[in-house]
Amino acid sequence: MLANAAKAARNWLVMKQSNRLAEFLPYRLSVTSNAVSQRIAQEYRNRWGLSVPEWRVMAVLGDSGPHTQRELTSMTIMDKVAVNRACKVLEDRGLAVRRPNAQDGRSHLLELTGEGAAMHSQIMPLALEMERRLFARFSDEEVEAFRSLLGRVRAEVDDLDADDIDSANFGIG
Known about the structure:
CATH architecture: Orthogonal Bundle
Shape: globular
Strand content: 5-15%
Number of strands: 2
Distance between the termini: 32 Å
CATH class: Mainly Alpha
Largest sheet: 2 strands, antiparallel
Helix content: 55-70%
CATH superfamily: Winged helix-like DNA-binding domain superfamily/Winged helix DNA-binding domain
Structural class: mainly alpha
Order of helices and strands: HHHHHEEHH
């Protein structure tokens, strides 16, 4: 009987923790972001043979011009290895090219080639249409509020100082 009670207590704890996880906003944000990214990535992969990191690098370059890999890593918030691989693939496919960086001889600037810019201009209308469809059932006010809230959350991430968190309150040893 004691074993059954212990098992029931463990099951209850697992259920309670999973419910907490389902309500944990950073988790929900991550899962939602992954779902949206995967759906969009499917289109980019099928139509242009691009992975998510490759498209993100292309999007930044197409939107704001040449950047170093370090800048691209910072701007996309991707791992530097993923950015490096994406840059290499884009170069190998002739969609981007490296040029010497006049400001820093130790680094290079990556920029889209004519072919890369042409592909970017084909992808952007699809990206915007997918965004339109994704938010079609939201009012303009809801979309703007969502944009604003995402911006605020992103800014808070930069200001979040883990040293100020009392881990004793979170069961962390």
